[in-house]
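How it folds
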Amino acid sequence: MAGHLIEIFKDERLVEKVKRRLPHLFQLAELESSRAGKIGMQVGSAREGVIVALLIYKFGEANVDTEIPIIEPEVDARLFGEPVSIKTITSKGFGGVKLIWTVDAQKAEEFRESYYPHCDILLVQINWNDLGGFY
């Protein structure tokens, strides 16, 4: 599966477009997800939509399935039938990527201790005052 995803990083023209446009698109996602100066947690879904649009742009709509049930753990899209997880994080010197959404601390700890990724992950690190990354 990673063979298809690696094409994103090997396509020099696409890499340049991502470098130019992704920060602006993520800034728009933050503006759309803000109220009273605070960014809401729905920003993750908005950013995910930007990355899905990138996948569709690169690989075509017929090869990117976004009809994934909301309760599907980990999987945000399917690329050529293979599951892909999309994670975005804003770096401010702390925090991390959420592995599971729960308020049950014991359940979260159990999940963290037994977690093993079951699909490829696209990770975007956003750092507004420095370099971020797309992995």
Notes: The two ends are 15 Å apart (CA to CA). Strands lie at 34-35, 38-39, 64-65, 77-79, 82-90, 120-126, 133-134. Residues 29 and 46 are 6 Å apart (CA to CA). The chain has a mean pLDDT of 87.
